[in-house]
Amino acid sequence: MTSRRQPVCIELPDWLFDALDFQRAYATGEQRMALAISLSARNVEHGGGPFGACVFDMRNHQLIAAGVNRVEQTGLSVAHAEMMALMQAQRRLQSWTLRADSVPGCELVTSSEPCVQCYGGIYWSGIRQLVCGARRSDVMALGFDEGPRSEDWTESLQKHGTAVKTDVLRDAAVEVLQAYKKRGGLIYNP
Amino acid sequence: MTSRRQPVCIELPDWLFDALDFQRAYATGEQRMALAISLSARNVEHGGGPFGACVFDMRNHQLIAAGVNRVEQTGLSVAHAEMMALMQAQRRLQSWTLRADSVPGCELVTSSEPCVQCYGGIYWSGIRQLVCGARRSDVMALGFDEGPRSEDWTESLQKHGTAVKTDVLRDAAVEVLQAYKKRGGLIYNP
Is the pTM of the predicted complex or chain greater than 0.90? Predict the structure, then answer.
């Protein structure tokens, strides 16, 4: 029964870390979103889903962590881009809440609006600000099911202390979704 | 930068595996729920949150995987009992969806109704049947925030192909929640 005791390890690909610059200050919201979208595009090139997400330090706009969709590669339905980035950020900052006094305020920048799972993950993560590129409707136009996220999701997050901004570089984010569809990429739970 | 490349590994405690019998057939729904509740109780004894969850093979009612809340111990807000059990099950069955032809139909039995994150996680996991002990209102009476789960969560899951049963051994599940509160256990996001 030894194998059952093994921890579940969730890996990000080497190319991702090769692409990241943890020293740079991504001064504008567009620069931060451009990074998330570029990771989504590269993930498609590497056979992954068309989603990328980054966690930034809100004080200096430096990158804390990044993630891409790794559902197929890891064999785990939790491995959405936002969840990957949040797990990496919490491990790096050594806190299960990104609102602890010991950690800087954190912003999650994601190439597409969160599905219901990532919405819930964001809710508990302690993220202070959420910024989205493509809309839920753009993702669903591809054939992806986004799940039954509540209609007032932005208001709920805001009441919970997480500011939400949508439609940042939406067109560029949608281009990656369309490129993925053109390649015949796997559409989960269609 | 080597440390950033390390995978995020999510461990369950040794006592959990010592407590599990993967050969036994848990023939009744109450037997299966009693196991999930007993794991929630033991997790409290070991300093964890009052939540336990198990994934069963629906053909023979044998245990496939189990999880307990490990948010504090792992430093990850994703480490709710249901998510831990689902990750373990997907790794064991080598499929990111528990509806693949290669895997048996799977039932998730959880000591309390899922929060919004676990609800989303269940949605994508491919679980065929969800069985809950304590209600959301029982968990919230403790002071836990369960997040903005949509009102029609059971209907949404059922439409998605996941049968839902609630209130199984609810009183026994609530007892563990109350014992946790009495011990002064940490209440997340109060």
Answer: yes
Please give the Cα distance from A31 to A166 (Å, whole number): 15
Distance between CA atoms of A107 and A40, rounded to whole angstroms?
Answer: 18
Which of B9, B71, B123 lies closest to A147 in CB terms? B123
- Residues (pLDDT < 50) of chain B are 1-2, 190
Residues 102-141 of B with CB under 8 A from A: 115-121, 123-126
Instruction: Give B75's contacts (C-beta < 8 A, 6+ positions apart).
Output: A90, A91, A94, A95, A96
User: A116 vs B119: CB contact, 8 Å cut-off?
Assistant: yes
Tell me the chain B residues in contact with residue A149 when contact means C-beta distances shorter than 8 Å: 150
Find chain A residues with C-beta within 8 A of B5's C-beta: 12, 14, 17
Q: What is the pLDDT of residue B54?
A: 98
Phi, psi of B29 (to 5 degrees): -60, -35
Q: H-type helices in B48-115, by residue range? A: 71-74, 81-93
